[in-house]
Design brief:
single chain, 79 residues, mainly alpha, 4 helices
Length: 79
């Protein structure tokens, strides 16, 4: 089994989502920031991060994520 450090991106994303659901914004943000460094081209990850930022009223960063999402998946309903 992979260690947390070397875990696949899907596992890191799921872990981040669990932190968010638990109300642990700091850990969620850390995980998503790491994921964005290497997997910013995955629309699902970008959309989830943008939505979480909007929920936290961090509109400037959410706008950046939304613009990237629009480029990644211009025909998706989430954009």
């Amino acid at each position: 089994m992979a260690t947390e450090r070397g875990a696949r991106p899907e596992i890191q994303f799921t872990l981040a989502q669990l932190y968010l659901a638990d109300g642990n914004w700091r850990e969620y943000r850390l995980r998503m920031d790491k994921l964005m460094k290497t997997h910013r081209d995955v629309p699902q990850y970008v959309a989830a991060y943008a939505n979480a930022l909007i929920d936290r009223k961090e509109y400037h960063e959410a706008e950046i994520m939304a613009a990237e999402l629009a480029k990644l998946a211009p025909n998706q309903t989430q954009t």
